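Researcher: Next entry in the queue.
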Amino acid sequence: MDESDRFNLFLLPNFLDAEACANLKAELNQSPTTQAPVYLQGTPGVIHEDVRKTTSLHPSRETIDDVHQRLMGRRSALEDHFGLSLTDCEPPQFLRYVTGDFFVRHQDGNTRQLDFDHLRVRRISIVVFLNDYSAEPQANCYGGGLLNFYDDETTFGLRGETGLFTAFAAETTHEVSPVTHGERFTLITWFR
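Model: Structure for this entry, 192 residues:
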């Protein structure tokens, strides 16, 4: 069995073409930034760098709306793949991981963290890679930063490629391993 099948991943290469990814990265590099939040039940605040260390990038409303519309165009394919009825998706978020950045094992929805309404309604998680993985330092690529999936028996590490759309059930345990070189750019959202 292919490991992506084991985790029921929906993989769509070239969701965004190389030019669109390059243009988006150029805008993101000029956009305002904040520390990326993480929501932990029973803890104050949303910045916990021992759990998640990455930067949120905030492009123009026009860019957010354009990406959201493209994501919504994949809703029926996701419904078919996962056997679910989905309503909409959250506005996309844009992330930059630099050397040392990571996100520990976690789940995005259908979890015990019932303090947070947005986690209860997430059904499908989406990650779109805006640049390529490379084991060796290379321009416009990153190393480390694998999107690792876990179950009781195995681990599968997905290496990003420019424009790759990745979808998985929100309750799937996953992580982003520490980036070892370069910058890892992604956009993320969740279908409900």
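Model: The chain has one domain: 3-191.
Researcher: Noted, moving on.
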